[in-house]
Each structure stands twice: as C-alpha cells, then as structure tokens.
Amino acid sequence: MQKVALVIGAGDATGGAIARRFAREGYVACVTRRSMDKLQPLVEQIRAEGGMAHGFASDARKEEEVVALVEQIESTIGPIEVMVFNIGANVPSSILEQSAQKYFKIWEMACFSGFLNGREVAKRMVTRAGADRRQTIVFTGATASLRGAAGFAAFAGAKHALRALAQSMARELGPRGIHVAHVVVDGAIDTAFIRDNFPERYALKAQDGIVNPEHIADAYWMLHQQPRDAWTHELDLRPYMEKF
After folding, report:
1. Which residue spans within the chain are E strands per DSSP?
2. pLDDT for 164-178, tens place per residue?
3. CATH label, 4-89+107-142+170-185+212-237, candidates 3.30.450.20, 3.30.1330.40, 3.40.50.720, 3.90.930.1
C-alpha cells in the first residue's frame, strides 16, 4: 500500500517544499489548506515532477473536518506515516489593542489545530507501530516557541503551547514507536511575505541570511530517517548570521 506524508498547512514556501521533498522519496503527498484553489499549483507541480499528490480543502481548526480528512486518506489512499503540522498564524498586535476574538483565533490556528491533527493521526499510527516501521509527527515551531516578543503575545502563547504539546506527545508516543519532533525555525524564511514586507531582511538572501524552504524540507526528511536509538526531539534551524 502507498505510504502517505500529510502536510497540514502546505503553503507556497515551507509546507510546499516539505510536500515535494517527501514526494520525491516515493510518498504520496497529501496537502491541506483552507482553499483548494491555492493548493492546485502545488499538486500540479508535484505531479509534473513525477510524484503523487492529492489536495484537500480542510479547516484544521474544525474537529469534524480533521476526523473526516484522516479517515478519507487512510481509507482511500494509504496509511499516514508522516504528519507535518505547518500552520503559522504569525499575526502581530499590541496587547493594548488585541481583541479576545483575534487572540483566540491565533491560538486555534497555531495550537488547537495541532492538537486535533496530531491526535487523529496518532490514533492511527499506534495501531501500526513496530520496529520495522518509521512513523513521524513533526510540528513546525518558531522563535516565538521559545520567547515572546513585544507585539506577539497571542502568537508566542500559541507557539509555546504547541511546543508543550509536542513534548507531551513525544513522551507518550515515543515508547510506542512514534517519533514526535518539534522544529524551531529561528529566522526569516524565503517567502513572498518577507520579500514584500521586509525588503531589507530579504536582501540578506544573497548572503544565505534567510532560510531556504528547501533546506527546511531536507531537515524534516532527515528527522524521519533517524534510527529510533538516536531520535532528535527538538531541532533548531537558523541562518549562520541569525542572533540567538
């Protein structure tokens, strides 16, 4: 049966690069965003490169949609052997102006949806765990996973919580043969958002001063390939010139 890599939040940069990386290794890339239209170019690119891909319009914050998504993939495509949670929600706002609605939405996107997707995939993985099977869950973190900056109370709170979720899942599921990892991407990523909103930072690309999404994807593939006697739980990725 075909092996599946499920990428929740397969955007144009990091998520898409991860999906393409696993597709090149023979995995069926199942990718999600809230809008199917935004997924189609990625699906077509993977298929043009000789890989297999399916796109799913799914709201990762809605429990019924997450349950249905995992059931559909497992029953019609194949077992999910890798799940990458890659939803960002990096929305700045002063604590003096932050509305309860906006704070809650950021938490839903960056943390609660990680719980929903992680739980549903883990429930399937534990039934298949064994010494001869690699199964991996990776959560994408950020600088905000480790420290809160001014203007990012909601984002930092959600990312801290996602990191705690990953730690708890690793301690529960690791002994059952499921590798749970948390990747702290500490630095600007080569995205259209950085290019358009932070041109001075984006100019550092010529000096390898921002993170290449393809290299993030390589790190995720490495995590999945690790032998179970030497698993990495938390991995930091940052450009050589990034302060930390």
Report:
1. 4-8, 28-33, 52-57, 80-85, 136-142, 179-185, 234-237
2. 999 999 999 999 999
3. 3.40.50.720
